[in-house]
Every structure is written in C-alpha cells, then in structure tokens.
Amino acid sequence: MASISRVLSVVLAVVASLTLTGGPSAAADVAVRVNQHAYQWNGPKHATVVTDSTTPLSWQLTTSAGKVVAHGKTKVYGLDEFSGDHVHLVDFSRATRVGERYRLVVGGVASFPFDIAKRPYEQLREDAFAYFYHNRSGIEIDAAYVGAQYARPAGHLGVAPNQGDTNVPCYPGSCDYSLDVRGGWYDAGDHGKYVVNGGISAWQVLDAYERAVTVSGGGRAEIADGTLRIPEAGNGISDVLDEARWEVEFLLRMQVPAGQALAGMAHHKMHDDAWTGIPMRPDLDPRPRYLQLPSTAATLNLAAVAARCARLWKKLDGTFAAKCRTAAERAWAAAVAHPAMYAQDLGTGGGGYGDGDVTDEFSWAAAELFTTTGRASYKAYLEPADLSEGFYWGSVAALGDLTLARFHNQLSRSEWRAVRDRVVAGADALVADMKSQGYANPYLPRDGHYAWGSASATPNSAFIIASAFDLTGKQKYRDAALESMDYLFGRNALNQSYVSGYGEQASHNMHHRFWANQANAAYPNPPAGALAGGPNSRLEDPKAQELLQGCKPAKCYVDHIDSYSTNEVTINWNAPLAWMALFADSPSARR
User: In the prediction, which pLDDT does 403 show?
Assistant: First the structure.
C-alpha cells in the first residue's frame, strides 16, 4: 500500500540526486548506467558503460559494505547511434542474491546504487495505477488515500471559480446542446479530457485487469479488491476495474445523444477555451469549457472501450454492461455512417490529437466488438497489424491483434495462428531492436528522431513482447520485457530515471498544473510512479529549444516544468507503465 513514507521517499530521492551529482547535468557523467531502482533476482541484469576504451574492462558488483560479490569483463559495443556515446555492455545476471544498494564498478567508477529484489515492481504496480486516482476529475482527492500533500478539492464540478463539467456546451457555432461530461481523468499536464487519449488509456487499464484474470499466473491477486488506495476499495470489485470505470463512464458521456444530427458519434475532446497558467489546481480553474466537434477516431475509441466494458462487467454489473454494449454498437453504426469525420481544432486550450487515417481505429473497434458479440460482420473490418512498430493513440491497429490473440475462441485455427504469428513476429522485431542499441530499448525510431512521449514507447513495445511470452511461454520474451524496464529507470543516455520517486536521479519537475513545485513551492512535486515524456529530438517547446540545441536524439530531455514536449505526464504514458508493472509483478514473470 502507498504510504506517507513513499511520499517522503520522493523528496529524499530528489535531495539525494542533487547531492550526489550536483544536478541533472552532472548525472550523465556517471558513466556506469544501471536500473537505478532494482533488478529482479532471477531476471536479466544488464548495464551500459560509457567509455572510449576499445578493449574490455574489468567490472565488479559490490554490496553496500563494499564487498565484491561478482566480477567479469565488459563487452565492447562501440558507438550507440542515438546517443553518440561509445559504450560497453555488462551482463551480471548470474548475481541473484537479494540485497539493497548494490553498485556496479567499472574502471574505478561506480554506478548509482540499486537493489536486487524478489519483487522489484510490487510498489510500482500500486504507484503507477495510483496516478489515475490522483488525476481524477469531478471528485475530491482524499488525503486518506494520497496523503495531505496531494489532497485537493474536486475539480470542475461547478463550484466557483469553476464553471463545471456538468453542463458543458458545444464550442460556439458547432452545435446547440450541452452535455454532462463530469468525471474521467485529466489528460495530462492540463485540465482537458480527450476521448482518443482516454480511449487507449482506459483500454490498457482494462487489459491489465483482463490479462490478470485470464492468463495463468497473470496476477489475479495483485489486482484484487483492496490492492489500491481508492474510495471504491472494499466493494468486492477489482480496484483496477473500479479505476478504469471512472474513465469509461466519462467516455460514455461524450457520446452525441439521440435526436441530434450526429447521434451516436463521440465528441473528440473537451477543454478550456484557452490554456491556463502554471500552477493551477483543478478546482481553481476559472475558464469556460467547451465540447469540441465529434470525430470518427473518437467514436471508434468509444466503440472499442465500451465493447470491452460490456465483456468485463457482464457478470459483475449487468446493467452497466448492457449500457456499454448499447453505446458501443451505436458508436460503431455512427462511425460507419461517418467514416471520415476527422478532428478539428476550434480555439485553443487543448491538444489537437488529430488523425487523418482511421483504418486502424476501425480494425481495433471491430476486434473488440467481434470478441464481445461474436458477430461475424465485424470481421470484414479487421486489418492485419504490423506490431514491429509498436502502438500509440494515433496508431492502434496492434490493439485489435492483441485482443484477438488472447481470445481466439471466435476465430478458426488458421485465423488465430495468423494473429498469434503477427504478435510473435512483432515481438521478435522489437527484441532485435533492443539488441541493436547500446542502451537496450525496444523503441527504435526509424526516422532518426525521438518523438514526443518517447519514454512511453518503451512500455508500449514491452507490452507486445510480454504478450508474446503469454502466447508462447518462451523465457526470452519474459526476459526482454523485464530488461526493457531498465531503460526507464536509468540505463539510458542521460542516466535518468524517467519515473518519479524511483532511482537516485529521478525526474521530479514534470509539466503539470498541480504537481508544480518548481513553479511554486506551495505545490507538490509529482508523487512516485509518474512517467515523464522523455527525449524529444524535435525540441517542441521554448525551454527545450533554449537548453537542448544540438542534442543527440536520445539526450533531448530536460527535467524542467516548462519543457512540456519532453517532461509532461499523461494518462496514456502511465497506462503502459502500470500494465508493465503489473506484468513484471505477476507470478508468471516472477517464476
């Protein structure tokens, strides 16, 4: 369970990082790059060493008391393209003794300390899922669940100065009605709520639950009622499912009501009429909020998530399940009738989330509806996915294959084999991408640029690799999925843990309007378990442009609240982090 001690650990980690390294710029000078959090005792343990040496170097693994417990020679890798670093690799997987504050020493240079643990991601599992409760809209965030530092009044319920989300009108001139769209999760560092981002995020949280209860050793006990600190704990329903429902109900409210010209479609998003400043607690936001025009992409996101909702709640809450199924089928019919209604931005105050190709959304929604209903008519919309490219909110074809691969009872044997083979082939390509880089990472951008939210591509890709493990039982996929986590916790070009509260050099100045301590000391730093966006080599904000000119793609990151293009947080980045934390802490991955 989360505790006040966990909150304190975030503060101590920040202080320690500054004390040990002299600040973020000095962190990259610690040449031995490790997972600063922990390695699983019976899992892979790898590190990367920055050095100009062209011959192997000696390494030692030392305890907190300085005792050498393992040693060997580095393997020369050479130039890592995306960082510009010349590196060596270290494999110390044979070290399995559980302990705290180990260090890896190479050429007299020691890494940051790290643990070797039986369950290194047990706490992260809770912290990563807790991110969503912290960012709920329309409910008081209670100190009993998050501690006094993170407690706040409910946002956007119409209590002054809020204008509220219970009667939100369409953007002027776009339609003539208002909707009650309270609830849901704030999308990112702003107070907007977006259906395409909410859709993939809710889907991944739901998938975490569904994997846990359907895959042998998937972690059923780890997602049981009472495993998260949320108001719904104790109601007899999985807390992960309870958390997902908070967003699903918002998505349902975004559907155009019967009697309107676009009935059944979903509004693309809703947000303020202009960007608010930082800091800004949600309940203090004074700006008017508007519904943006419906889009086909948003409508298909709603169809996919609502179809899964109907499946998962069927035996838990038949009334809610039926409501979800009706919404899914209405959304599907509306999308078929309006297949090319693309997102438009009206005014400012929110991200665009534009998408000019919705073939992948049709395939994803069809896969979910087919799995839930068994109706063969949906199969005509299924498109084979290339899972080697991973997925994100704007490219979701892989999600359909991932669902079909797990629930193959509706498919013929040959159809299921084709889906399974695509998942495994995608995983193989992603594992190869990991091995081709000096800082093992299943994310390898083909265009040479690290994209906005690049850190989230790591757990999204690991999701596919982990799914191949579920399908085949092959240890190489489990090991690769676990190793991918190392990148997020410091085995990267900046020696930076991109997860708040985890690691000696952890991000803590994320772009967020409430977790805004850097802007105003009266506001808190992020709680533990929030994933930063990570390197973005296109430098898409003024602070990045000021500080990062000439950076190598893997190094285009700064832990600063003003760098929204490298250091924002979002629900669709934390959703794959939570999914992977649950996978890593599940019995199947710990064996």
Answer: 97
Residue ranges of alpha helices (H) inside 338-412 are 359-373, 397-406
Would residue 584 be called left, alpha or beta, if left means φ above 0 and alpha means ψ between -120 and 50 degrees? alpha
115 counts as catalytic: no
Question: How far apart, in whole angstroms, are the C-alpha atoms of residue 298 and residue 49?
Answer: 44
For 141-162, give the DSSP string.
Answer: B-HHHH-GGG-BPPSSSS-TT-
Given this model, what pLDDT does residue 15 score? 35
Active site residue 546: no
- CATH number where 242 lies: 1.50.10.10
Marked catalytic residue, from 360, 559, 560, 585: 559
Q: Which listed residue (511, 541, 560, 585) is catalytic?
A: 511
Domain range enclosing 378: 122-275+282-493+569-590
Q: Are the C-beta atoms of residues 584 and 481 closer than 8 Å to each other? A: yes
Phi, psi angle pair for 224, to nearest 5°: -70, 165
Which residue positions in the chain have pLDDT lower than 70? Answer: 1-29
Respond yes or no: is residue 511 known to be catalytic.
Answer: yes
Q: What is the pLDDT of residues 197-227, one digit of tens each?
A: 999 999 999 999 999 999 999 999 999 999 9
Residue 112 and residue 146 in one domain: no
What are the residues facing 76 on neighbouring strands? 88
Task: Show the CA angle centred on residue 350, arms to residues 346 and 352, nearest 5°.
Answer: 70
From the candidates 190, 541, 568, 585, give the one annotated as an active-site residue: 568
CATH code at 53? Answer: 2.60.40.10
71 vs 180: CA distance, rounded Å: 62
The answer to whether the beta carbons of residues 366 and 379 sit under 8 Å apart is yes
